[in-house]
Amino acid sequence: KLDIPDFFISTLGGKENIKNIEAINVTGESMEPTLNDSDIIFIDTNKQDCTKDGIYALHTQDGLLVKRIQKLSNGNFNIISDNTIYSNYTITKSELTIYGKVVGSFGSIF
Predict the structure, then answer these.
(1) Could you tell me if 48 and 103 are in contact, meaning their C-beta atoms sit under 8 angstroms apart?
(2) Phi, psi of 89 (to 5 degrees)
(3) Quick check: 62 and 79 in contact, CB under 8 A?
(4) How far apart are CA 94 and CA 97, in angstroms?
(5) Among residues of the chain, what percentage have pLDDT more than 90?
(6) How wide is the angle at C-alpha 76 spanned by C-alphas 48 and 87, nearest 5°?
(7) How many CA atoms, within 13 angstroms, populate the side-chain half-sphere of residue 63?
(8) 23-45 confidence digits (pLDDT tens)
(9) For the stretch 39-74, what's the b/e string if a residue is b when 16 or more beta carbons lie within 10 angstroms of its beta carbon?
(10) Are strands 54-60 and 63-71 parallel, antiparallel or unpaired?
(11) Which tens digits make up the pLDDT trace of 76-89?
(12) Max alpha carbon distance in the chain (Å)?
């Protein structure tokens, strides 16, 4: 049995929300310094409404990506990499499929 501290469960939305949480490893450096390669992130798959800015996991033709999403006044969305060596881009709502919102992370665990 994995004993998870109450404060961390609360951070993830509480005991009733744990069923909506997915944990995945970050691959790549596009979200550094916020999220680093091999970090573990926690995604709330129940939070798929990205009208509020935040970091989300999204499905694209390239697979599952984790990016910062910012809604624009014209209804489109900026897809932002925190690492400035990567270009940001804009997509329409019809091109955007949200998997969930990133609600927590752990640094690399060895």
Answers:
(1) no
(2) -150, 165
(3) no
(4) 8
(5) 65
(6) 95
(7) 1
(8) 999 999 999 999 999 999 999 99
(9) bebbbbeebeebeeeebbbbeeeeeebbbbbbeeee
(10) antiparallel
(11) 999 999 999 999 99
(12) 48
Q: Hey, what are 17's tokens?
A: 């929300």
Q: From the centroid of its chain, how far is CA 61?
A: 17
**Residue that wins the pLDDT comparison between 17 and 72:** 72
Return the structure tokens found at 65.
């990506």
Residue 92: HSE in the Cβ half-sphere, 13 Å Cα cutoff: 2
The closest alpha carbon to 89, from 75, 76, 102, belongs to: 76
Spacing of C-alpha 37 from chain mean position: 14
Sequence-ordered strand ranges (E) for the chain = 21-25, 40-44, 54-60, 63-71, 77-80, 89-91, 97-106
Task: Identify the pLDDT of residue 2.
Answer: 66
Question: What is the number of H-type helices and E-type strands within the chain?
Answer: 1, 7
pLDDT at site 91: 92
- Chain position carrying tokens 């697979």: 63
